[in-house]
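Re: the multi-chain job from yesterday

Posting the exact lines I submitted so nobody has to dig through the queue logs.
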Amino acid sequence: MATPRLTLTRAISRPLRLPRPPPPPPSPSPLAHRRSSSTLPPTQHDPFALLSQPTWSVRQLLEPPAPTLSASSSSSSSSSSSPSTTPTPLKNQEHREANQQAKEGGEEDVTPEHLAHLLRLSALPPPATAQETASLLATLRAQLRFVRAVQRVPGASSSSSSSSSSSVAPLAAIRDETAAGMREAEISPRTPGVREALAQEEVWGRCKRPRRRRGAAEDKAAGDGWDVLGMAAEKAGRYFVVRSGGSGSGGGSGSGSGKEAGEKAAEAEES
Amino acid sequence: MSRVSTAELSKYLLTGSITRRGCLHARFSTATTSRGFATDARLQPTTPTTPTAPAVPFRKQLKDQNKALKTSGNKKKKNVDNQTVPGWELTVGIEIHAQLNTRHKLFSPAATSFQDSPNRHVALFDLAVPGSQPLFQSETLIPAVRAALALGCDIRAVSRFDRKHYFHWDQPSGYQITQYYHPFARDGRVSLYPRDGIAPADGDRVDIEIERVQLEQDTAKTTAMAGSVHWLDFNRVGVPLIEIITKPQIHHPATAAALVRKVQMLLAAVDACVSGMEAGGLRADVNVSVRRAGDAVSPGSPLGTRTEIKNLSSFKAVEDAIIAERDRQIAILEAGGIVEGETRGWSLGSTETRRLRGKEGEVDYRYMPDPDLGPLVIADDLVTRLADSMGVLPDQEIDDLISSYGLSTKDAMSLLTLDDGARVQYFYNVLNALEERLDLANDASPTSDQRHAQLAANWCLHELGKLTELSSDLGMTPDGECRVPSVDLAAILAHLHRREITAKVAKELLWGVFRCEIPSGGVTQAIESNGLWFHELSEDEYADLADRVIQGEDKVLSEFLRFKQGKTKAYPQGKLMFLVGKMMRAGVEQRMDPSSAEKIMRARLESVYLPALEAS
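And the result, structure tokens for all chains:
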């Protein structure tokens, strides 16, 4: 199977730069299914052998740094074709009691000020006791260690690896992103919403510019027919009422200054 | 009035005292004391420290102040050209948010609305009710793609949605869905010309590159009430916006304002965003930085620290805010300080931007790809279909008007902008009808005389504007009809063009049509019944008038003689017009045309009067 491809290559005089090695011989193993993701380069290895020995573990990466850190990073770097799994956000309770106060080797630490800033951004209550602060910081540091270890994998992030030419984009969601899947998700003039909207357009003026015809009766079913104000804690006619001023109104003050003041200040409006 | 004595004058100028002698109200009370006062002051020279000395005259005070300012170096020079500051280079980048003209919102099937009853068009997802999911409404792509194409961008086939997290009461879900990492359009270009209002220092043409155009959601409308209470209307949550981000290539404030204006015009032309800055449909944020002109010479040298100005609500505000911020930054840098990267605000009528939040209040948006939404895949045939149906863009239309009809740039621009583009439709209607009447449709060669088109343009712009105080009172419909039907105006202009009526009569007819005194289609009938035809005087009759008028005008004739003999350089046009005016008054005005009278007078001067004067 490999031979015909190689002869084809030789037949073409212009040197072809093949991005990946020739495909492997068909293996009788039932697990050798073709992966649909294009990010996995097919290798010559046997999948069974590859997956029989784990190259890294969560517990290993969460252990205290310095000597174990280099070991974990070397072991993770050996698997150049690591499967692109989503780094799971860690909230494992058993690792919390690994109360490390040790500083990160050479990497910037998380200070209590950083923690307070992050909690404020997420509108979470600040820690009440020093012990709570310490445990939160420990969790955060452990999580950061894990993330940094993943980022050290060659190809994981384009900034860290200089040698690899192809970087693996982080997976945002698992969807059908094959060619067929993309074609299905495509928006074209035949897509129902677009087709209706294009049908409702008219050409206007000497310059033949498009105009959306207005005045069509609004869809009664779309968005109406439920009690919009039913969940309002406070109402004023048909408006929701929000009180600002003073700290702690749901993170309003911190974010009130953080919000870009794009709106105009006071518009007189009758309800 | 009697002359003021020199003694009194010198007393006033040098010491600032006015003798009260003769002042009624002070006659009996302070006359004696003031006189004595003045005398004392005259004997002793006034010193600033003498408490009894009279006040320094105000004019002198101002002069002293100015002199002191000048020596200290703080004198505010009146900057005639505030577009450039010598020695400094300004760099501006603009971010424009425009509301798209669609029927439904971006991720929910609720309807978009404008000034509707509050909280009436809100879906579950708009209020972030737990369990609600976004549903991408594909029709929002139509105006978005058209907008990007109008700005000359490349449309990316695959783009993705990201979440921008921040907490505010007008964002119920706690994040805004935008396209941070992979926008749907990149690398566009907007060309600006002097007719768009760029700074003269930018020359004949400026090309500003658009870095990206991305889709995003709008937020709720907040109305501030008394007592730190806010009323929220969620009709606007989730309405699709496009954010247009330019590269920092603008170097003058007027060019920045011109860019925003041009983008608004382009978006309105392709029906992508039909509400302008005044209606709140288009908002602009500007990023301003300065650096010394010497640093700018080497390419790739870093720009200065930039500050962002938000909350700009009009084109003039854009220009003024940039100028104020540039001056502030230059003042800081010249004094040896450092410009902080912060967010500032501007309100109309201020002289300086004010700080909204600094670095410590900066929000970390924690952008992350939205897991609920799949990639946005735009088919090529959709892009082609939308590109083909965009029509003629405004730049092309202006060029056509200028080249085909010989209009001036200013007139063409005015036609396009008046009445939201309806005025130019009216002009086309009038022109079509006029050409029909003049039987010009058949010999439409580009080099043919386009005087009738220029006449039509003048009347559509200026005469129509004289009819009402507000142009909205004309009742111009988008199709190009108003209270003066285009066929009637064409009839008037046809007669005027063929010199069958005078301009004055034509204006009267226009008034008549506007006030419905002349029924539609009855222009010719009205001229006939009122006897308004222009029966011009013959050449001989003009000549007779000229002879009558020239009697006793020897002084004026001598002026012409002096020009003929080469003693003066300029033709005495004013004197000629004086003679023409005399002719008009002497003759029957309804039968006279000032331009032909002028021609006849000029000819007779040359041929008859001056030789007669010379001979005598």
